[in-house]
Amino acid sequence: MGVNSNRVEHYDSHETIRVQSETPMPSFQIHAVQFPPETTTLQKLTHRLSEIFFPDDPLHRFKNQTCFVKFLLALQYLFPIFQWASHYNLSLLRSDFISGLTIASLAIPQGISYAKLANLPPIVGLYSSFVPPLIYSVLGSSKHLGVGPVSIASLVMGSMLSERVSYTQDPTLYLGLAFTATFFAGLFQASLGILRLGFVIDFLSKATLVGFMAGAAIIVSLQQLKGLLGIVHFTSKMQIIPVLTSVFKHSHEWSWQTILLGFSFLAFLLITRHISLKKPKLFWVSAAAPLTSVILSTILIFLLRNKTHEIAVIGHLPKGLNPPSSNMLYFSGLHLALAIKTGIVTGILSLTEGIAVGRTFASLQNYQVDGNKEMMAIGLMNIAGSCSSCYVTTGSFSRSAVNYNAGAQTAVSNIIMAAAVLVTLLFLMPLFYYTPNVILAAIIITAVIGLIDYQSAYKLWKVDKLDFLACLCSFFGVLFISVPLGLGIAVAISVLKILLHVSRPNTMVLGNIPGTQIFHNISQYKEALRVPSFLILAVESPIYFANSTYLQERILRWVREEEEHINANNGTPLKCIVLDMTAATAIDTSGLDTLCELRKMLEKRSLQLVLANPVGNVLEKLHMSKVLDSFGLKGVYLTVGEAVADISSPWKAQP
Amino acid sequence: MGVNSNRVEHYDSHETIRVQSETPMPSFQIHAVQFPPETTTLQKLTHRLSEIFFPDDPLHRFKNQTCFVKFLLALQYLFPIFQWASHYNLSLLRSDFISGLTIASLAIPQGISYAKLANLPPIVGLYSSFVPPLIYSVLGSSKHLGVGPVSIASLVMGSMLSERVSYTQDPTLYLGLAFTATFFAGLFQASLGILRLGFVIDFLSKATLVGFMAGAAIIVSLQQLKGLLGIVHFTSKMQIIPVLTSVFKHSHEWSWQTILLGFSFLAFLLITRHISLKKPKLFWVSAAAPLTSVILSTILIFLLRNKTHEIAVIGHLPKGLNPPSSNMLYFSGLHLALAIKTGIVTGILSLTEGIAVGRTFASLQNYQVDGNKEMMAIGLMNIAGSCSSCYVTTGSFSRSAVNYNAGAQTAVSNIIMAAAVLVTLLFLMPLFYYTPNVILAAIIITAVIGLIDYQSAYKLWKVDKLDFLACLCSFFGVLFISVPLGLGIAVAISVLKILLHVSRPNTMVLGNIPGTQIFHNISQYKEALRVPSFLILAVESPIYFANSTYLQERILRWVREEEEHINANNGTPLKCIVLDMTAATAIDTSGLDTLCELRKMLEKRSLQLVLANPVGNVLEKLHMSKVLDSFGLKGVYLTVGEAVADISSPWKAQP
User: Which domain of life is it from (chains A, B) (predicted)?
Assistant: First the structure.
């Protein structure tokens, strides 16, 4: 377009066209709308599939390489340890050693506590802090991920399994189901990674997770009142009402000794947590606090062992390494469906946490974590775990944060942690005999309280009300209904939000910003002016079956309102409707029918409908469905500006 | 922007910037990006809700009217009969009388046949052609809709109910459940209308319906082989395999007399249908054919009544008007859930047909049908029907087409039809005693064969492969699984298609069309050239939790590929990434985080990220979440052109 100030129209605020005198007839160079290069269906399909499954183009490193280099790269891809093992040195080892020991001090009490959260024997929590970290250090691509059991997955597994199977009456079945669920969680995670379906976890939006985690944290904290108050008979249900009923119904079982011990250590843990939050450099204060509490309380109970029978202790724990458990997996029978369901729910939750944590710390040090690769690593680690008496593990946020702050450099810190757990398993187990259960409850509460992220919730409320609604729904869903259903409702609301945006898209009237070829929303830009005789509408969504009826009605309403307005103000009569298709990024057969229909209906009212700037695939479909033919050569323009200039030029010639 | 040819940059094909000598430093007037006018949360909510529920602004007619006029308008809205009854005249009556009698001749055999399709007594089909048309003529807003039972809803009701309840062993229960399902269908339809949730039916896309109806038509036609071949023992299942098995397993029951009679009349009906399709003026040929067949075959059987015992006939039908059936409705008990489910599925299917047919004929005569109003009318008509021995009815395509072609002018034609049915019910029932069942089978086959719309299916394949996939899925789902499940799968695929579009949106590189301020997809527009030092990307979707991770990865990949390309060709190094946000019509909290993260990651690589043309609500959210602050004053531009001009101007000053 030979843009020239002489040829640009100016619209003044009285909405009449003023054309500068020396050039009475603007002779714009109109650019033809072009089709995208022709591609076959197969090419389109390949392109689409590669965008869906390989958006990161994982093979780009393999291009133009020799076979040997390709083999090395593949090996490094499958086992990231080969990427860094060759240039590993003593100084890195020193950092990893310190951070490994630091997270071990956190991992041991956490392992025992979280296993109790899943209604599993405490020793399973330690087993789960030994085998999976070793496997992850070979397969994982994150340098800072601290691997082990996490509170959310433990809680969900405990709640889903114990709704059907009692862990007190049939502990072997319960344990077997937990391992089976772990196996299916791993299988599910690894398949997502291998099939490159990682985007499934994207559907757990941050808003959903904020609500879900806060709800779960409250439920877990309330459940810990069992240990904290010393109640013996407690509900196994997970909703807030039965839990609270249970607390007050058994108030005669409350034990003042337990309460005193529990709340003192809870206060200690919360204070250390607060200190570390205020001064991130003092991260070790909260990292060391759980182990300190365990040691102190164990010594205390040991000293007072003849006077504190009311305080429940862990008791005997077997020494020794993880026993094999592949023979305990159930692949048939009544409870298989339960195990699969539990596996999928815990698998997806632990995956979400693991990937999110990995990405967070990777972005802090500006390296990338490959989502699909991580899924494979976490999945294989869980499959291996399920055969060696471990339950669901993933990258834990608290552990990774401590790991990062303690200066971890590579996944070797996970190996050091596993070694420390190994020593504990082999030699130190009898020391936990007198550890009071109430300390574990206090540790759990301190851990989960960090999951209540009210600041994020407040931000959601401020920025996006619908996101906040999804957050609220998952929060109350978890509190009052059940963990998986709460999660399901929240995902449904998130999806509904997308569908709502598509089924009721924004349409807006565009106006010209005087002296330019820019057309903008007149309600957003005060200086944008309507162009007389034109109604310029922008559609802010793909035109699909879900919105085609709505769009047709809405556009006709815009036309009706514009005509009413013109009649009321004796304005220039409407002659042409320009549809700016820039944001209508796709169209389906219903959408094509709608455009056709709309054009016919407007034609019956002597109004012309033209399209501006249809994107490539929309243009192609308009062409293939012959809708383009009905619009004619002059029905589609490259920009709104060119449409307005070209259509209005003959009118000006005959004033 | 003081656009002036001297100031416009030209990029030649060697991708170097050439600035015309007389103006070495372009001094563009950059337009500030403006926020939309501030609105409160309540105002936003009200606006959003009114767009969701009242997109057609139904109250606009009531504005600035006196109370009396408002009352009259409300009455006319509720009972559209008041709109046209006052200027009804004899000439209109003449047209309506002819068309009413024409559709009655179609309605009587269709009513009997479709009732058999739903495994109901034939008389119920006639009852259903009497009460509902009368109610619709008072409440409905379409002038051409022919109301009565339709094949799809009859088939679905028959298949869903008879899977659980046998219509031969417990006919009273079956009949009661059919009326109950009709009641719930009506209730569901009316509620959709009253709650203005009409968009629910939009989710049955045309592609889905094409496949569903073709599958259903094939199943129905095959089922009619029972009547057409004279088989006595036949499966009640609806899948293709048991039906075909049934046909050939009972081949000893085939009756040559029935087959001869059936296929001759089927041929007659198909030929008349073909004639009417070829010459629309001869519509009456196919409209009169069913009644002609019924009369001819009845006379034939009556004459040969001593020699044709093998041919099953309808037998005795009770005379008299619709008996009340409200006492037969089940509102409790074992089968309530089944009745509700059947009601909802048949309700939504019949609603889809009724609304689509109403809209089709309204657009032919350029009047509008109010979707929500129609839902109320159809819903109330079914509720009333369920209390007067009618089963699900709606606007039938075949009947409406005949009605329209026979010159119907108003809903009075429905009243005429009902009167004709009334006469039949009161006096003519004994005449149907000798009507052979095989004729009904032939009528049904002729009716449903028109539902196989292979031309539309071919068009779907040509224009949109994913739509075609949805079509295929519903087709095979209905054939091999079951009617409601097939429908469910197809809806799920349609929704998945929307989600896929959102979770894997298109991103594309824009280039400048030389001599203009227009930036376009470089793969679509060959003349569009990349701007050196810039990478201009357009995102073709809202930025949501479902795609934020993908978009981040994809944009980083674009940057990586661009840098590799530049390095390979010794080009100008990349300095700035411009994100064209025109088509990113919404953003949520995850999307905001992604933009923030992306900006930081690019900054670490010394690349500037700026946004161009964010729409109103995106801009607001960027502001509220403080992401805008991190981009700074110079981080957001009104157009890509202004961004490029403004950012590159200091570079040119220091060559």
Answer: Eukaryota
Look up tokens 């709340």; give the residue.
A263
User: What is the percent of chain B where pLDDT is above 70?
Assistant: 95
CATH of domain A504-653: 3.30.750.24
* Closest C-alpha among A126, A124, A134 to residue A182: A124
Supply A635's token pair.
Answer: 């029905």
Pseudo-torsion of CA A165, A171, A176, A180, nearest 10°?
Answer: 40
pLDDT of residue A29: 67
Share of chain A above pLDDT 90, in %: 20
CB contact under 8 A, A615 and B521: yes
Q: What is the 3-state secondary structure (H, E, C) of A115-169?
A: HHHCCCCHHHHHHCCCHHHHHHHHHCCCCCCEEECCHHHHHHHHHHHHCCCCCCC
Judge whether B72 is closer than 8 Å to chain A, CB to CB: no
Give the amino acid at A99: S
Q: Are B212 and B475 in contact (CB under 8 A)?
A: yes
Over the stretch A405-441, which tens digit does the pLDDT of each residue have?
888 888 899 999 999 999 999 988 888 888 888 888 8
For tokens 């009507």, the residue is: B435
AA identity, residue B82: F
Identify the DSSP state of B374. H
Tell me, yes or no, if A494 comes closer than 8 A to chain B by beta carbon: yes
Contact criterion met (CB < 8 Å) for A36 and B366: no
Token pair, residue A258, equals 């337990």
- B41 interaction partners in chain A (CB closer than 8 Å): 465
Question: Which of B540, B552, B553, B627 should one mutate to test binding to chain A, selecting the residue with the greatest count of A CBs within 10 A?
Answer: B540
Q: Hey, is the C-beta of B8 within 8 angstroms of any chain A C-beta?
A: yes
Q: What is the pLDDT of residue B132?
A: 94
Partner B contacted by A592 (CB < 8 A): yes
B541 touches chain A (CB under 8 A): yes
Interface pTM, i.e. ipTM: 0.81
Q: Do A4 and B2 touch (CB under 8 A)?
A: no
Nearest-Cα residue of chain B relative to residue A587: B464
Would an 8 Å CB–CB cutoff place B554 in contact with chain A? yes
Q: Which of residues 438-467 of B touch A (CB under 8 A)?
A: 459-460, 462-467
Among the partner-chain residues B506, B526, B616, the one whose CB lies closest to the CB of A585 is B506
Q: Return the closest-CA partner of residue A190 out of A19, A45, A380.
A: A380
Identify whether the C-beta of residue B505 lies closer than 8 Å to the C-beta of residue B580.
no
Pairwise CA distance, residues A3 & B253, whole Å: 83
Dist. CA A182–CA A389, nearest whole Å: 10
- Cα distance between residue B536 and residue B446, in whole Å: 58
Average pLDDT, rounded, for chain A: 84
Q: How far apart are CA B626 and CA A70, in angstroms?
A: 45
Give the helix, strand, coil percentages of chain A, each rounded to 5.
65, 5, 30
Q: Which of A129, A595, A616, A155 is nearest to A385 (CA)?
A: A129
Mean pLDDT score, A247-259: 83
Contact A55 B4 (CB under 8 A): no
Q: Do A465 and B41 touch (CB under 8 A)?
A: yes
When CB atoms are compared, the residue of A31, A371, A588 closest to B464 is A588
Spatial neighbors of B78 by CB under 8 A, at least 6 apart, are B139
CATH class in words for B505-653: alpha beta
The per-residue pLDDT for B26 is: 40
* Residue B537 contacts residue B580 (beta carbons within 8 Å): yes
pLDDT tens digit sequence for A559-617: 988 888 888 888 888 999 999 998 888 888 888 988 988 998 888 888 999 999 888 88
Burial A578-609 (b: 16+ CB within 10 A, else e): bbbbbbbbbbbbbbbbbbbbbbebbeeeebbb
Instruction: Mutate one of B35, B498, B599 to test the A interface: name it (highest A CB count within 10 A).
Output: B498
| CB pairs < 8 Å spanning A and B | 252
